[in-house]
Specification:
- There is one protein chain.
- The chain has 20 helices and no strands.
- By secondary structure, the chain is mostly helical.
């Protein structure tokens, strides 16, 4: 197949449009030496801008391509990511975001470092960074597959070029650039998705009766545990994401954060319908009636082509102009998520690692450049993973795995369990990581060292092991915190053995902290659960040694 010149020109124009929009939106931020201007866009987001950027970030390439892939090969019942992530947005908007925004935090990790100390809180950044890289890789991989099929351009080249564009405008403008380009990307995603699937449905090669008995999918009795486990992973694993809180904390107030998140949840649900229909179309097409020939010569797509369902439908079942728009849709979805993941990890590193631990007295100019260099590093790592990825949907689900078993219980406890302390945090962290590694992960070739009940050699762990691990981590945080508090407050161990400064941090927790964020709705001092409020730099707390 020859290179699709019209499509290639359209994609180039689209990339230039996004790049120019990103640079214009971030022109003020590009010259600033204020870290928070880049990270939180000066906390100036209103309802609609926040809604657009939240939706565009959530509906990424993994969301679109992964949904079509899963529907086509596994059925509707097993395509849990759209519903799980949508419900997760509702929970975040109603429960988590208002509490975080009222406190005036800069990143999701501020409450951990304020309460547990700088270094203990910083280790929680590791699962966040890994998940961001997996997410960015999944969306870049989705774009590479789409462009390779429709334009007949090398997939690796398209991944690299797309990542470079997203990295560049994120590098220059921070959240302002990302948010305003998300507005353009949102409209292109919505228009493209709802224009493509009606044409695909009406193609003569599509016969829905071919999948009438299997498009819904089936859940065998021995798969119930796995089904519940994956859904809870997506639901709760979608809560502790810096990409989300970066936008929620950038809103003008907590009411804006709450409303825009709920609106984004509704929009995300509506935008999952077209890729789901495209997945059904891909599974019900007699591909021998099209110009495409499957590698096996059969009329159905083989398992080896599962990640190509959406691009194949766009290429062979719709007219050329619609196909070209479809490429723009996927490219928009990819950039809107990739830039968010990259900026999220870079923001946490610059603020919570470099500023609060390595160089507390660093100048604003220095921090801004640390943030930009970290954007380059994170973007490069995500691109490398994307080039070697085998399953888009697999990466899409895997990115929530660590968030569910490690960070979800940690975030919940820091916000609503006042007795939590550094010892409980570390015990829960080690418990979750150790058990998750022992459980194995086929996506990265890690064999299981522990075989839970219902284990099957061919299907892997049938037991809801992720939920079990999450609950073990939750119990470890509660038990470790209460026990360590009892040990030191009762004098069973002298205070000099309190190496993580549990008692000292508890004293800090009861202090009144100066509120330096003029836009925070809550006054200086304590939140209702006793967690320190305020955006004040950790450098102010000289007592925190760890």
């Amino acid at each position: 197949m020859a290179i699709n010149i019209a499509g290639l020109v359209s994609v180039i124009i689209f990339y230039l449009l996004i790049l120019i929009a990103g640079l214009i939106a971030g022109r003020k931020t590009a010259k600033t030496h204020d870290r928070d201007d880049i990270i939180l866009a000066n906390r100036s987001m209103g309802v609609f801008l926040s809604f657009f950027t939240l939706t565009a970030t959530n509906v990424g390439g993994g969301y679109i391509n992964g949904t079509a892939e899963s529907i086509a090969f596994d059925g509707l019942l097993w395509t849990q990511a759209p519903l799980g992530y949508t419900c997760s947005l509702f929970i975040a908007g109603l429960v988590y975001a208002p509490k975080m925004r009222k406190a005036g935090y800069v990143t999701m990790f501020d409450p951990f470092q304020l309460k547990y100390g700088r270094k203990v809180g910083a280790i929680l950044f590791i699962p966040q960074m890994l998940s961001d890289l997996f997410w960015a890789a999944s969306v870049l991989s989705a774009l590479g597959n789409t462009v390779a099929v429709i334009l007949d351009v090398n997939a690796e080249l398209s991944i690299i070029v797309s990542a470079a564009v997203a990295i560049f405008y994120t590098f220059m403008g921070g959240l302002s650039s990302v948010a305003y380009t998300d507005v353009i990307q949102f409209f292109l995603i919505a228009l493209g998705l709802y224009l493509v699937f009606p044409f695909a449905l009406n193609h003569e090669a599509v016969d829905l009766s071919r999948v009438s008995d299997r498009w819904i999918g089936t859940i065998q009795p021995d798969q119930v545990g796995k089904f519940i486990d994956v859904f809870l992973l997506l639901l709760m694993g979608g809560l502790p994401w810096q990409t989300y809180y970066q936008r929620a904390l950038a809103c003008r107030d907590y009411k804006v954060a709450r409303l825009s998140t709920i609106m984004a949840g509704v929009a995300s649900a509506l935008l999952s319908i077209p890729p789901a229909v495209i997945g059904v179309v891909g599974a019900s097409t007699d591909w021998n009636q099209t110009d495409y020939r499957t590698p096996t010569g059969t009329s159905e797509l083989p398992e080896s082509e599962r990640s190509l369902v959406l691009p194949l439908v766009m290429q062979y079942l719709v007219p050329l102009p619609v196909s070209v728009l479809g490429i723009g849709t996927v490219a928009a979805a990819v950039m809107s998520s990739a830039d968010s993941c990259i900026l999220a990890s870079a923001s946490v590193f610059a603020k919570n690692i470099y500023c609060d631990i390595i160089r507390p007295k660093a100048s604003g100019r220095e921090l801004v450049w640390v943030l930009r260099v970290t954007v380059l590093v994170c973007g490069t790592l995500a691109t490398v993973i994307a080039v070697t990825a085998s399953s888009i949907y697999g990466l899409f689900v895997l990115c929530s795995d660590l968030m569910y078993v490690v960070l979800f219980p940690q975030l919940t406890m820091i916000l609503w369990f006042a007795p939590s302390n550094s010892y409980g945090c570390l015990l829960g962290y080690v418990t979750a990581f150790l058990l998750r590694i022992l459980a194995g992960e086929p996506l990265i070739g890690l064999p299981p060292a522990v075989r839970f009940p219902l284990y099957h050699p061919d299907h892997g762990q049938g037991f809801p092991f992720r939920t079990f691990i999450m609950l073990c981590s939750l119990g470890a945080i509660i038990g470790g915190s209460l026990l360590s508090q009892l040990v030191f407050t009762r004098g069973w161990l002298p205070a000099r053995y309190d190496i993580l400064h549990c008692l000292r941090n508890r004293t800090i927790e009861m202090r009144q902290v100066p509120q330096t964020d003029p836009k925070a709705e809550q006054g200086a001092g304590l939140t209702e659960d006793g967690v320190v409020a305020g955006k004040a730099s950790l450098a102010q707390f000289e007592d925190v040694r760890l």
